């Protein structure tokens, strides 16, 4: 019996050592953008780059996310079965997270201080590795979303301003030409 136990322990140690030293997928959050602001929520989209070192595709079982702001959790969710990681490649995964306005209303103090929403996005990318089983890659990203001011809303973007300026110059030029014709 003692010899069998020693053999089991030896095999267990060797397998554990191999698994511990085995290459594992790695992930980084490349960017987080606000994609849509609607009457009921703000939709954030995180771009996650995941590198698969294996010669076979790996299924992503689930992506769990938590959005925090001012130290409070304002949204949580999961994305079941979002696809697979390409073999021996880097896969870009889009992770949408929807934050209801009711949660943002509780952040009035943060917004009033500097007119932006500071946030932290925490992701858990759960993949199914052969031999090991489910493996979670934890990720975190912090950023801020600047809210538009009333003057920004009235003013529009720079392109609109340029178009308005060009149109005004053309009108002035036409008026000037008409005045010159009337004088002659």
Automatic annotation (TrEMBL):
- Which stretches of sequence are listed as region Disordered? 156-184
Q: Name one GO biological process term.
A: response to desiccation
Domain Water stress and hypersensitive response, residue spans:
27-144
Show the InterPro entries listed in the entry. Answer: Lea14-like, LEA_2, WHy-dom
The protein's matches in Pfam families, at most eight in alphabetical order, are given as: LEA_2
- Here the segments flagged for biased composition (Basic and acidic residues) are 165-184
The lineage's top-level taxon is: Eukaryota
Q: Which SMART domains match?
A: WHy
Q: Which spans of this chain does the record mark as coiled coil?
A: none
Q: Which family does it belong to?
A: Belongs to the LEA type 2 family.
Output this protein's name.
Desiccation protectant protein Lea14 homolog
Naturally occurring in which organism (per UniProt): Nicotiana tabacum (Common tobacco)
């Amino acid at each position: 019996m003692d010899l069998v136990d020693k053999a089991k322990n030896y095999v267990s140690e060797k397998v554990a050592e191999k698994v511990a030293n085995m290459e594992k997928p790695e992930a980084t959050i490349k960017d987080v953008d606000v994609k849509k602001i609607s009457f009921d929520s703000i939709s954030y989209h995180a771009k996650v780059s995941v590198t698969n070192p294996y010669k076979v595709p790996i299924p992503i079982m689930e992506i769990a996310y938590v959005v925090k702001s001012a130290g409070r959790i304002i949204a949580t969710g999961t994305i079941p079965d979002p696809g697979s990681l390409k073999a021996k490649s880097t896969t870009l995964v889009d992770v949408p997270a929807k934050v209801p306005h009711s949660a943002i209303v509780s952040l009035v103090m943060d917004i009033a201080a500097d007119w932006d929403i500071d946030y932290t996005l925490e992701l858990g990318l759960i993949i199914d590795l052969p031999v090991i089983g489910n493996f979670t890659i934890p990720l975190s990203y912090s950023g801020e979303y600047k809210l538009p001011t009333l003057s920004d809303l009235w003013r529009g973007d720079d392109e609109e301003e340029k178009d308005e300026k060009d149109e005004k110059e053309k009108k002035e030029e036409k008026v000037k030409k008409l005045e010159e014709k009337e004088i002659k």
